[in-house]
Amino acid sequence: MIKIGSVSFPQNVADQVAECYTSLPAPAGNVKMVDTYIFNEGEQDIRAFSIFEYDDENDSELTVYLEKRYAAFSQIPGVTYKIEDWIRVQDALKMLADGIFDTNVISSNMSF
């Protein structure tokens, strides 16, 4: 499974966000941060998202890490973030076939 953490922030706080990003600790345990991607176009708010891969048994560890990670960003004025759980299409199709598909699995996100 993966979790995607995303932030959005005004252009004028980009330096503060960059400083915060460089001071974040790496994820612990068997959690892997795949990468971070940034979208910046014109005068719009800058958006960034990071993808984290994990095994089900590491879910609570990752949740604690992400809450701390994004709480650090939220100290910067104008920054908003959300954390979302995503599943692979193949996993969703298997769940449908097994009759156990729960839309809460893919829609249980936290927006702050």
> Taking strands numbered 1, 2, ... along the chain, how are they ordered across the largest sheet?
2-3-1-4-5
Percent of residues in beta strands: 25-35%
CATH topology-level fold name: Alpha-Beta Plaits
Radius of gyration: 15 Å
* Corresponding CATH superfamily: ACT-like. Chain A, domain 2
- Order of helix and strand elements from N to C terminus: EHEEHEHHE
CATH class: Alpha Beta
Please describe the biggest sheet, giving its number of strands, its sense, and whether it closes into a barrel. Answer: 5 strands, antiparallel
How would you characterize this protein structure?
- Strands 2-3-1-4-5 form a five-stranded antiparallel sheet.
- The chain has a single domain (2-111), classed as ACT-like. Chain A, domain 2 (Alpha-Beta Plaits, 2-Layer Sandwich), CATH 3.30.70.
- A hairpin with a 6-residue loop joins strand 2 and strand 3 (46-53).
- The relative contact order is 0.25.
- It is of the alpha+beta class and 112 residues long.
- The protein contains four helices and five strands.
